[in-house]
Amino acid sequence: MEFGWTDEDLAFRRELKEFLEQTLPDNWEEMSKDGPGSDVQVEYSKEFCPKLAERGWLTQNWPTEYGGRDASAWRHIILGEEMWRIGDPRSSQYMNVNWVGPTIMKFGTDEQKNQHLPPISRGEAFWCQGFSEPEAGSDLVSLRTLAIRDGGDYVVNGSKIWTSYVNHAQYCFLLVRTDPESKRHKGISVLLTPMNLPGIEVREIPSIVGERYFFEVFFSDVRVPTSCRLGPENEGWNVVTYSLAFERVGAPRYARAALVLDELADLARERGMLEDSRLLGKLGEARSLCEASRLLTYRVIDLREKGQPPSADTNLARVAGTMAERAVSELAFEIFGPEALEYGHSAEAHYRLAMTAGVAVGTTEVNLNLIANRFLGLPKE
User: Out of 2.40.110.10, 2.60.40.3500, 1.10.760.10, 3.40.50.12500, which CATH number does the structure's domain 128-235 have?
Assistant: First the structure.
């Protein structure tokens, strides 16, 4: 296997780094400390993403007919690595490029493609994901939000919880049950739901992770046109599994973890802590986890580039990334000591964001079960 980058890819990474150095404000580190959902970071993304789009970088791996440049999936991961390394100035728009847009390309009607893909490729669209519910979090197929047909509309009633990026979202990628008699994976549909429809109520959930990070969304007799349905009625689980396969490697968190780890190693050296063999072992383990996460993610990107269908490799990559972030976060507290507990400290900020990695896109435990079943072929019981 060839692990090297092409000269063109290396040149793109250099050009992208130079662009970031010249474009990001001097106080970017402070702006980004509360994560991509904060009001400050969202507002900045409205200025930043169009600049990426002007250079053809934002959706460069998309087909040209949808605003891309037919670039390889490897260009997409280079962009993701350099964005996440510094706190991703794209804010929630990273989701649009990584899985919202590609899922619409795969399952959308021409009308849906024409409506949604151009704003995403211009860096103007904001989406949220309506999946988890109070009694259907990791067990997503237990969802109970109902969408019942009434003429040319679905009437939606129910709620979603732990939903990120709602405060600025224009649309919700909403998972509903369109067959009230169905169970588990059957009878589910996806609605591309405008967030300004009457009957939608949003409530923020206070969280230690950061401001504007989690929300509850309530749907009370919300009328969503049937033209908003993505894919066939009652067959939305195929749409969801496709999108999740993209989402699990959409945030290359290992890039940020590796950067923080380098800083921790330098600090440990300055403080004379590298004589501790136990700490050296932890540094080495964290480095190994970062590299494992990176290579497993590259495996997924390689499959995508070759046009092969999603596989359990996405679950492997996600678990490895979660383990890497957790190991680096714990090291940060050990090396910095009590000062790391101060709000806004780099170690504290990294730890808060790392907490979400083991829950988003399915908990670590759910992903491990999927690995056991789909990758190792072990029985479910």
Answer: 2.40.110.10
